[in-house]
Amino acid sequence: MVGLPDDKWGEVVACFIRSELADVLDPAELHAHCRERLAPQKTPTLWCVVDAFPLTGSGKIQKFSLREGYLAGQYQPLTNG
Predict the structure, then answer these.
(1) CB 42 within 8 Å of CB 13
(2) Is 67 domain-assigned?
(3) Strands (E), 1-81
(4) How many CB atoms lie within 10 A of CB 30?
(5) CB–CB of 77/46 below 8 Å?
(6) What is the reported pTM?
(7) Domains in the chain: how many in total?
(8) Residues near 1 by Cβ (< 8 Å), separated by ≥ 6?
(9) What is the CATH number of the domain that holds 63?
(10) Domain annotation covers residue 49
(11) Distance (Å, rounded) from C-alpha 29 to C-alpha 4?
(12) Cα-flanking dihedrals φ and ψ of residue 48, to 5°?
């Protein structure tokens, strides 16, 4: 999960997913599933599918790269339908 800038809230939570089933993922279902298990402020509001995660030399996900890529238009959020 990555924080993305938001005009209203200052920042919103986005979740970047690697999935072969990207065409059947429903953001509303993902949100409902997470909302049952997480606090409202920790529940992602945007969902983006990525082919691969940018990694550091030690194998950790570079969250700043995901954020920069989203802001540059490299990733598009999932939509219903």
Answers:
(1) yes
(2) yes
(3) 2-6, 10-17, 46-49
(4) 16
(5) yes
(6) 0.83
(7) 1
(8) 13, 14, 15, 16, 42, 44
(9) 3.30.300.30
(10) yes
(11) 21
(12) -130, 135
